[in-house]
Each structure stands twice: as structure tokens, then as C-alpha cells.
Amino acid sequence: MEKSRTTTTEKRRARIRSALQEKRCLRLLEAHSPIAALLAESIVVTDSFGREISYDGFWSSSLTDSTERGKPDTEVLTIHDRLLNINEIFEATTLPLVADGDTGGLAEHFAFHVRSMERLGISAVVIEDKRGLKRNSLLGTEVFQEQEDVESFCRKIRIGKAAQITPDFMVIARIESLILEAGMDDALRRARAYVEAGADGVMIHSRMTDPGEVMEFAQKFKAEHEGVPLVCVPTSYSQTSFEDLQAAGFNVVIYANHMLRSSYQAMRSVAEGILRHGRSLEVEDSCLDVKELLSIISSGLGETKQSSSA
């Protein structure tokens, strides 16, 4: 059966919350453009048990969204910039999307951001407990980064939850304690406060290559909050399998920047090859066939294949 290319705003928005009730763990893949999202939605593989596996949704990363536009990852893009890109992704796809909301901005502004995201059909937003000029978390203590005080961040969560209209939208609190070396106790203390403030889920982030600290957090967090969704982003501990993260208690695994990182490598290789050889013949094997490219876009528009003499 051919996969449907249509959905509604309401159905898309509700899919992450409903999927979390049906599945132990979701896979989300970064999509910085409609073509990246179309590709992510079309990928299906078969595992060693003969089961078909696909992505459950998209992640709209502030890092890749900014980088694609040649801008630093410092919240320089406005919420309107981000939503324009997401709307274009939604026009071509059907999977749900979780948005990287950075710090969420001022609490009073966050209320309006929630309404805008909810209206567009975004399923959830993740906001991090930092303040001041936003810097990418994987830079850690190499640059100045400061965590927001607990009560101020809880207030932002409460304001965001009070602003939403439907029960489908989710506000997920991202904890930066391990990133900034504040310790496990601080991370767990913040998690308790954020859940009590109304957060629909918690993301724990780490820049360690060993997954030990996120696994420890998962064990201790789930002992206190068994029913609260727990999210991770295994960029730095990339050797850790989805199955191991699921077994540890994580409910969402986000592959947060790989589509843009890989596309840049491929484009650079092709661009260098054309210059080096003075023609494109040598790089054609690295490029998608034009007819296949046209077919991808046509399928995204719901068109049927037709013969053509052109």
C-alpha cells in the first residue's frame, strides 16, 4: 500500500504524545530542510528479526537551522524564522516534529511561542535551563554558559503550559547540569522541580563520550518518575545503541544534527572533485540521479508517475 502523503495539523500535533503511549522508545532524526525531511520519512530498514524500522518523527535543531542559513547557534534566528522552515517541512511530509526551543526566551514571550508552535502542528518543544547568550551545549565549559535558577525556569514552564490550548502539545525541560559539570544531584534536583512545575518530559544532555552519566541519570530519574518521558541526544556517546538507551529507560532518542553534517561532507567532496577534474564526470557516482531527484519531489507533492516525451 502506498504511504499517504496527507495529514492534518491536529493529527500531526497529537502523534508524539500518542506514540509515547504506544511505544517504549521513539527515534527522531534531525531535518533542516524539506528535502532532508522527505528523505528521513522515506527510509525503512529491516532489522535482524525481520522487523521494519523507520523514524517516528523529526527534530528541528537550532544548530542545523542556524548553520544552514550561515548564522551562529546563538538564538540569532527568531521564532518566526524557525517556524517558516518548519512550515515548509510540514508542506512536504506527514511525520510529527519536536522543536528545539533553545532557552525559550523570556517567559512572557515563551507563552506566545507555544501558541505559535501549537497552531502550526508542532508536537513538542524542548527548552534548556540556561540564561544569557545561548552557546551550543557541546562546547561545555570551554565558553561561558550559565544555568538559569530553578524557580525562574519553573516559572517559564508553568507559563508555557498555561498558554497552550490543546492537551496534545508538550513542553519538555532540558537539563544542562551534566554539560556544565554541576553534578548528578543538581540534575536530579532540577528534574524533580521541572516535573512538579508541569513539564511533560525531561531531556538530559551530556558531552561525555562515555554514556555512564546519562545511564545513571536515567536509572535514578525513572525510579522517581516512571511515567514521565525521558529524552536523550547521543551525539557525543554515539557508540551507544538505540536498544541500550531504550533498555536504560529512555523514551525518545534524538539524532540531532547528522543530516546536515553528512550533507556538508558530501557537497564539499563533489565541489572539490569538479574543480580538481575540470568536469563533473568523476563525481557523478556521488550524486543522485536527476530522474530520481525529480521522483522524490513528485512523491512529496502526491503526484503520480506519468510518461513524458520531454
From TrEMBL:
Pfam families: PEP_mutase (PF13714). One of its GO terms (molecular function) is metal ion binding. Keywords: Isomerase, Metal-binding, Pyruvate. InterPro entries: ICL/PEPM, PEnolPyrv_PMutase_core, Pyrv/PenolPyrv_kinase-like_dom, Pyrv_kinase-like_dom_sf. Its EC number is 5.4.2.9. Gene3D superfamilies: Phosphoenolpyruvate-binding domains (3.20.20.60). It comes from the Bacteria. Belongs to the isocitrate lyase/PEP mutase superfamily. PEP mutase family. This is phosphoenolpyruvate mutase. The gene is aepX.
